[in-house]
Amino acid sequence: MARLILLLICLALPAHAQRQMVVAAHPMAAEAGLAMLRAGGTAIDAAIAAQAMLALVEPHASGLGGGALMLHWDGARRRLSAWDGRETAPAAAPPTLFLRDGQPMGFHEAAVGGRAVGVPGAMRMLEAAHRRQGTLPWPQLFAPAIAAAEAGFTVTARLAAQVAADAERLRRDPQARAYFLPEGKPAAEGARLRNPALAATLRAIAEQGADALHRGPIAAEIAGAVRGHANPGLLTTDDLAGYAPTEREAVCGPYRGFTICSMPPPSSGGVAVLQILAILGHQEMSVDPRGIEAAHLLGEAGRIAFADRNRYLADADHVPVPVRGLLDPNYLLIRAQLLDRDRALAALRPGNPPWQGGAPLASQPPQPEHGTSHLSIVDAAGNAVALTTTIEDAFGARVMVRGFLLNNELTDFSFLPEIDGRPVANRVGPAKRPRSSMSPTIVFGPEGLPVAVLGSAGGSRIIGHVAQTLVAMLDWGMEPQAAVSLPRIGALNTTLELEAGTSAAALAPALEARGFPVEVRVMNSGLTAIRILREPGGVRLLGGADPRRDGTAMSD
């Protein structure tokens, strides 16, 4: 026990470096990424190696069967790329996919099984990025994860708890049951799990590229598992073969002399984070980070941004999304004027941003979002990666194929295609990407160079986690470890959420007196962050990994 406590203390200590750094949600993922940097690889190489390892050691959060969104800064070319590896709906998916007898299905009724499985995109996206910005041979990037899958890894307390909590759903799938519930019991903390099936899949990807997942026998097995499930889906081998990642233009906005850049649609995260910061930019933020004023400001700015998010944000390749209008400074000034420092808004309505198009939209009702992991990486050449990766709910669809879990990402669509005769922007559609909240973020200083790299897990709570961490670093001057360790405070739709078991929970009565609907709950965020300081002696890197998970920063 004493050794475990010492390990946890060490993982929570601030990390410092002068050359390169990887921050991940598990030490083995950080170690795999750093090994690539030490071998002369780029931040992209490190991200691929770390993601492959996360597929093994954090299978409930991300992996080969899911998707990912990534910002990449090319230091030599001074070029920012926003890579979209988000899952897509099958070509046959109808808007009514999650309706039964005209009514929306229950979340887990929809999520468990084949119905909610989207076409995975993470490996295709990482492969495309590697072709442009990687330097190490593709097979080399998978060697650490292959070796670990064959030798086995030690189950952490967090993974053991996740397996135990979801045991009944995992038990329904033969492969998941055999792997996660050996001898019929959930894998326990300290147990050693070997995954030779995953090792074989990773070896196939190393040899054949992402085609190993999207064509051939593995693709056929994925489609068969989806379509043959008791809760069948519509995914076909043609859907898998036809998937293509997309390089997009990041959304960026000013804050306190910095430029904040994040992910555009199909993620709602970048736009919502920028809206929150734009609203807070009109406020004096010299307040106690753990006090009621900070909670009020963060909560109210988040609630205002969520009203717009729920009305307008979706896959811009399929529906008109007024991104330009939602980030217009004049429009955001109007939205900022709604914020009252003494009282919460009783009625929260979406605004009327300029440059709208298409039919009037209905706001999507709230629904669960879970899962996910985040990697923050800076290499010795000044390149940076912010990669958020997911299979959506914990353990995704609870369908296991060839050693990895399939996603349930289609439940990120609105279950209701229309409300009161008006379409919902985020309704299901063929080959459409479901709306995400993932917010991989890179902050640039006045000279145009990165000064911070960050992101989080947490479903739609990612938006509040990232916004609060940016304020902590940029307004309150906190180092990354202190910023990601703060008691979590943020909006989820109209509700102001406070992290249970922390000083934030004690603020509930005072915030309720100000008119906030408040919920005190567990907040398993999963932030990772790197601060880049340019000093006369050179660059200094500071890292932070969320103590709520198993993460750490590793560096040289």
Automatic annotation (TrEMBL):
InterPro entries: GGT_bact, GGT_CS, GGT_lsub, GGT_peptidase, GGT_ssub_C, Ntn_hydrolases_N. The keyword Acyltransferase applies. Belongs to the gamma-glutamyltransferase family. SUPFAM superfamilies: N-terminal nucleophile aminohydrolases (Ntn hydrolases). It comes from Belnapia rosea. Cleaved by autocatalysis into a large and a small subunit. GO terms for molecular function: glutathione hydrolase activity; leukotriene C4 gamma-glutamyl transferase activity. Pathway: Sulfur metabolism; glutathione metabolism. It catalyses: an N-terminal (5-L-glutamyl)-[peptide] + an alpha-amino acid = 5-L-glutamyl amino acid + an N-terminal L-alpha-aminoacyl-[peptide]; glutathione + H2O = L-cysteinylglycine + L-glutamate; an S-substituted glutathione + H2O = an S-substituted L-cysteinylglycine + L-glutamate. This enzyme consists of two polypeptide chains, which are synthesized in precursor form from a single polypeptide. This is Glutathione hydrolase proenzyme. Keywords: Acyltransferase, Glutathione biosynthesis, Hydrolase, Signal, Transferase, Zymogen. The active site is at 372 (nucleophile). Its EC number is 2.3.2.2, 3.4.19.13. Residues 1-17 form the signal peptide. L-glutamate binds at residues 86, 412, 436-437, 459. Residues 349-374 are annotated as: Disordered. GO terms for biological process: glutathione biosynthetic process; glutathione catabolic process.
